[in-house]
What does this fold into?
Amino acid sequence: MSESEHIYDITVIGGGPVGMFTAFYAGMRQLDTLVVESLPELGGQVSTLYPEKIIRDVAGFAGIKGGQLISALHKQMTVFPDFAPTVATNEEVTAIDKTDDIFVLTTTKGQYKSRSVVVAIGGGSFAPRKLAIDYDQALEDQKIFYFVKNVADFADKTVAIAGGGDSAIDWALTLEGIAKKVYLIHRRDQFRGLESSVERLHQGTVELMTPYLIDGVTDGPELSLDLKKVKSEDHVDLAVDALLVNYGFTADNHALRKWGLPLDHRLLKVDANMETSIPGVYGIGDCVNYPGKVKLIAAGFGEAPTAINDIAVKLYPERRQPLHSTQMDH
It folds into this structure.
């Protein structure tokens, strides 16, 4: 049977951590599964942006690097070889149509048919919020960074981190034991991170530069940062080897609108089974909205079995639903 004729039980759109776990759980339910990911490799933003970041909201791990989590999810996806998913990377879904009870997904490389669809595209396409000052763009990835691919690049260097949220605090704590010196620049005296992380920050060696804004950047043997105190004309000069900017990201879920799916505040509106108002189309992870929704990897992992079990019951009502996660142990 050719690919255009093959009909999958489930197509998961999005190959980030939540999409990968969804594919694994679909294998547990012995469902024929396809994963379509627009990036060249699985892992989503975690692989692309945070391979060295310590993730602390995954059950069973006090902390695990993003890259290690993706590697573990890769391994988990093939734990049931007969039901390992088919994976299509570097391929973007451009349209979702339904004929009778079969969905036809058109991509940049062809078409796939599926009996159900699980959308797990996270925040969609993303771009970092950059410094709101003029600076030499050639400094990016040389002395000014928006992503960290390898923490070893900052070993024995003086590093300034700009930002006041969880990501900035996490990087400050991560680099504290690697860099020679770490500064954290924030426009407020209060930080917006997890209480436990903020407590560690105050107890550590990271020097807090608050409340300051970066008013200028000058290159030289070192990077010279002109810091302006908020609501004041006072300035401080800070010489560093590298500046890591963590002002967050802008996300665009334009694909959801393009596919004509039901939205609520630009996010997929789903019910208690994670199903949209279109029968057979489900959404999980950061791309969905429902009362009490929490945007954490851990929450997305929990939503996956809810969606997959509902799909399995509808596709194969004669099968008995497993009562617990050890149902398939031998």
